[in-house]
Amino acid sequence: MWASSSRERTTTMADPTDYSGMAALSICEALLLALNDHAILPEHEIVGVLRDAAASHENAVSAETDMEMHRGVAGLINRIIAGGNSVRRP
């Protein structure tokens, strides 16, 4: 969690106004696309990175309130894999 502005509002990853999370996702997607475009990592390696990230959240052990966040993050990563957003496809 982090605090922002003078109101000291606390935001979690599940908060849809978590702009830092959205920015991080956009940056990571751009990096994955660049790695693939420049033949640094092939598609199967990029998908493997995403699967590892999803698995770490799927296998997380924490308080139930945190588990909701982990399930949401894993679900989002799995939708990214299914949608092919991490690699450019013809």
Write the layout of secondary structure elements.
Elements (H helix, E strand, L loop, with lengths): L1 E3 L4 E3 L7 H19 L5 H16 L5 H20 L7
Antiparallel strand pairs: 1-2
Helix pairs in contact: 2-3
Structure in words:
- The protein is mostly helical and 90 residues long.
- It has three helices and two strands, in the order E-E-H-H-H.
- It has helices at 19-37, 43-58, 64-83, and strands at residues 2-4, 9-11.
- The chain has a two-stranded antiparallel sheet with strand order 1-2.
- It is globular, with a radius of gyration of 15 Å.
- Mean pLDDT is 81; it is low at 1-11.
Describe what is shown at a glance.
This protein has helices spanning 19-37, 43-58, 64-83; strands at 2-4, 9-11. The protein is mainly alpha-helical and 90 residues long.
